[in-house]
Structures are given as structure tokens and as C-alpha cells.
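writing this on my phone so excuse typos. first protein, seq and then structure
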Amino acid sequence: MTSSQAPELTGFDELFIEFAHDLRFHGMVIGSDDVITYLSAISVLNASDIMDVYWSGRIALVRKKDNIPLYNKRFQAFFLDISDNEPDARKVKLKSSANAGATLEVPNVEQGLPGEVIEDETRLGYMASAADISRHKAFADCSDEEINRFRKLISMLKVSPPKRRTYRTQTTPKGKVLDMRRMARETMRSLGEPKDLMYIKRKEKLRSIVFILDVSGSMADYSRNLLQLAYSARRANTKVEVFCFGTRLTRITKSIDKRTPDEAMRLAGESVMDWDGGTRIGDAIAAFVKESRRSRLGRGAIVVICSDGLDQGEPQALDKAMQTLSRLAHKVIWVNPHKGDNEDYKPNTIGMMIADPYIDRIFSGHNYKSIEEFARELSRLG
């Protein structure tokens, strides 16, 4: 295999080729084309993410179902059963991502006879790490170590950017509406009937997302977790703005443009002067609306507000600000940890009662599972 055939993976390509050779040495039939497919798959994913590495190899290198247990065993031995003094920094980096992502489970997709349970499938959480952490455990009940693990997990969530349809159109080979104008031009060029049918569809653009995070004393920890999600969203969609508020609104978008979540969190913390202070939700939303009118930040955007609704400001100010925001934004989403797992949640604070008529959806954000579901739904709100 030449370097021109395999995609560049910033230093990881040789490691993955070595892994393919290891599988071949232990009896799996793997051709050069399979290895190139493997590298191509990882090149469009994340070469330092253990899940992407696992599934890329599972799909590209495993041809027979009977080889799955062997693949899992060699993957564990090659990438994860390494000592703390392992000289290969690439393996160390992959192992560290395994520790962070240990709770992400591989579903059992193989089907046997009715009622039969197939034991050969391996959960990636078990295979990748012995770390035991529950996605359903509330953040309030977690230790500092568990919170750090959750934040690493949240930072690795892949957020698909929501899209909106524009009024501009483009030609497409398949569709429901014929492109009569272009077909007429082609007919005149060919002095007869058009050679092919042509269709049009409306163009799509990325929809803006705005995070407005309450960093007062009662919400600081929850907002930090959602700030990790905003970091992931910012990487997937440049049209993401982030604000924090306590007694005043602070824009921290530039702080989360750094390469690592830890660095982004540090700069964001330095930017917000009233972290762990009081809460004036109405004043903060009013300030955002005023800023949005000048820069159009929130016009047509999905606005995500993270707060428990414990407002110390004037109720009239919150009502007026939320009313204006609901007209300005495409969707207003509220993340409130007090909702928990209660599907029949009813607002029980003055701030939430005032804001409720202007809210399109309410999520809880009180544990990792709820944030994972919110990230998945975010792409469908466009």
C-alpha cells in the first residue's frame, strides 16, 4: 500500500495498519483494499476516538460474523491492554478516550432464533474500560470524579447541525417538482424534447443555535455541562453563539473556539464575572434581544436557555423579554434540571411560570442521558 492510496490521518495511519496486520496474523482474512477502506472511514471520523476506531474496523475489516469475538479480543489487546508506561503516545490517547467513553454501549444488532440471546456481542463500555458510570445517575448525586468523566463524554457528543430550507432553489436529479425553466432551455438547445427530466428543490442552510446559560449559584454546575455541549455544537456548526448570565449577560463565543474543551472552559470562566452569583433572567433575555436586534444573532435561530427559573428580577421584565424573544427566534428551548425524568412536569417557580407560554420544548439536562437525548433532538428542530 502506498502513501498515495491511504488517506492521511495525522500520524495514526501507521498504527491502524499495524492493527490490521495484527488481525491478519491471528487468522483473519484482510486484504489491502479492506485496510484502505478502514483508513478512509476513520479519516472522515475522529482518529483519536475509540468508538470511531472500533466501528470503522468492525465494518471494514470483519467479513464474517464468526470473526467478531476475535476482532473484539484483538482490539482490546492491541489498543487498551497497555501499561501506563506505553511508549506509543497514540495508544495512550486512544485508551484515555476509552476511559471517558466507557458507558457508550454497542447495541446487540445480531439476531438469532426467536427468544435467543447472543452472548458473543461485546458492549464497548465493558470492552473499552472497567469504569462503571451510569448515564441515568443525576449530576447532583455524582462525585467530582464522575462529573469530570461526564463532561468528557459530553464534549465527545456529535451534534448534527440543524438546517432550514431557504426560498432559493437548486436543480436535483430526483424530486417532486419539475424544473420547467431549465427543461425549456434544454429543449430549445436540442431543437426537440429534453433529454432528461430535471427537478428542483429548495436549498438548505445551517440554522443558528444560541445558548443562554444561567451560571448563578443554583445552576453553575448544570450550565458547565451544557457549555461542554455548546463546545461540541460549535465544532460541528460555526453558527453557534454562547452567552452566560447571572446578574448580567456575557458573550463567551470566542472563549469556546479553542481546540480543547478544558481550555475553552477555563477561558469561559474567566470571561464571566458573575459566575455563582444571583439571577436576573428577564434582564439577561432583554439584553440579548437588544443585542440581537443590532446583530441579528437570534433572528430565526434555535435559542436554548438553561435555567431553573429562580429569578430575582421583575416578573414584568421577564414576560416582556420572553414575548419578544418568541417572535424573534425559530424555537425557544428551555433546559431545567428540576424537570428530571418527570414527563408531566409543570412549572413550579415564578420565572418558569412566566416563561412557559413562550417555550416550545422543555428538557431536563439533569443527567447524561437527558443531555444525550437533547443533543440528538437538537438536529431535528431545524
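second protein below, same order as before
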Amino acid sequence: MISASLEPAVAMAARPDLELVRLVKRYGGAGHGAPAVDHIDLKVAAGSYCCLLGPSGCGKTSTLRMIAGHEAASDGDIVLGGRNITALPASARGTAMMFQSYALFPHLSALDNVAFSLKMRGMAKAERNARAAELLERVSLGALAQRKPAELSGGQQQRVALARALITEPRLLLLDEPLSALDPFLRIRMRAELKGWQKSLGMSFIHVTHSQEEAMALADQVVVMNQGRIEQSGSPHEVFNTPRTEFVARFMGGHNVLPAPHGEGRIAVRADRTRLSRAPLPTGPTSLAATVRNVEYQGTFVMLTLDAGAAAPELSVMLSEAAFDAAPWQPGDGAHAHWDAADVHRLAA
């Protein structure tokens, strides 16, 4: 029987919060190298889905591994449910980690893979197998309990890995790029399943990814990291629509970053709110003369890349398929890109 700690009926107020306080990770000789994670502060609400997002080397995986206890923090604190777990071994933290490779034992059945951690704790075979079987049923794999990993699809292996992580009844589930090995079709399907599991369990998931699309689809809270620091943390809508910095605007995509009027910093304008005109327009704060450099058909829309000189050597404009078909553009065409002042978002320095 799965304990009530995994049931959605448990009041959310009883769920733990995760807090990182001035957390640091240094590698190199005696841990004195440049910080891979540089004094980050982060709060994750109980029962939420949080994605740590950023390019390779930004510190997201090091952060996840410190939370899990697989890397020692160089400085700072990790607090889970009001308990400081910074110095605790991984097995005593109340966390479970689902690895990118799934790390299933190839010689064990799905049932034995799921039950393995309980076997190591000395639980009787009948009891641990009953709990493992219940979890496999929960992830719709009860009929495949006796299959070995090589006899399962990638999506089925992921479900076994999830069941194995959940059998320890963790307070916090940590996921290290769990969808990166899947083909695009399966990745979309498994995104929906992950989100559904997180909601039904009512527990917090911390998910590392380099995919903006994945983070936007899954997260309640997106944490964008760059060079060991948090550039911005917020809801997907907030991070996409009001990027705080130039890095966030460029990394999240869909924005043009331009010099602000009078040279006062930088602004961002969404590509889908940037329009094109063949008629000459006065060049000013909301328009630029440009040349079309590239046209890419994307199915429901067409993405044009333009060169507006020093002000914007790479300007993107997203047109609906219908709008493009009504008035097609070709590389080399002259154009005027323009937008509404209300769609301008000022970026932090």
C-alpha cells in the first residue's frame, strides 16, 4: 500500500518547501576553483513543478546534484521542509533522483528494479514486491512487471525509473534531463505524463533541462541560469513575456533585442509582435529599415530573419502562414520592421 504521503488528498500546507540560501559549488583543487554555482538564492513552493533551465555549463545540473546529495555544497544551505539537509547523506534527505540514463539494472525485471532500494533496506520480499507492483500499476506497467529493461521502450523504461524513485516515498523528486533521450513524438507525450504524475502526487518536482519548450510546457516556476547564477525566476508566462535581462530574452527565444531610444540600455520586442511593411516608414523608436536575409517555413507560421544594420544585425519577424502567402517575402527584399510602443519591454542593465 502506498503511504498517504503520496496521495493528492494530503493538504498542500503539509508539503515541504525547498529553499537554497547563498548556495555555492566550486570544483578544482581543494574546491577553490571558479564557482560553477555562484551564491544562488531560490525558493520553490510546495507541490510545484520547477524547471532549472539554461545552456550547458550554466550550473543547473550541479545545483540539482547538490540538492540530491550527490555533490557536496562548497558553501550555503539547502533547506527542505524547514529542515537543513546540506550536510546529510543522500539517503537521509527525503529526495529521490531520476537520472537522464534511467540507470536501470539490465539483469533485473521491472518489478525487481523498482523494489531494489527496499531490498537494500532489508524489507521482506513479499512486502517490497507488493509495493513495487502497486507502483508499476500506477504508471500503467503492471502487465510488464517481469520484463527486463531491454524488452521495454524508452517511454516504458522512464516509467520504471519514475516508479523506482517514488517507492522510497520522497518529499522531493529530482529529474536530470529525463526526456532528452526520447524521440520528439514520445518526448511530447511523456511531458504530459510527467506533469500529470506531478499533479496527481501533489509533490514537488525539480527538473533540469536545456529546452525552453520543455520548461514552458511543464513548469509552474522557470529558473533561468547563466554562468552559475540565476538570471530570472518566475512563471513561464512572466519569464517569456517580461524577460529581465538580455540573456533571458535571447535564451528564451521569440524576442528581438534592440538598443533603447537615446542609447539608454536595451529593449526587447516579441518577434510575433514585430510587423513588416513594404512602404517606407520613418525610422525611429518603433521602426527600422532592414533587408530580408532568410525565410523559413515552420508550418503554421513563417520566420523571417532580417538585417537592420548596426542596430539589429539579426532581427526576427514571425508571420502567420496566411499573411505570408498573401504577400510573400524573399531574401534580398527591402522592408521596414515596426512595432507598437506598448509591446516594448525594457531590459535590466
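The chain has two domains: 4-241, 260-346. thats all i got for now
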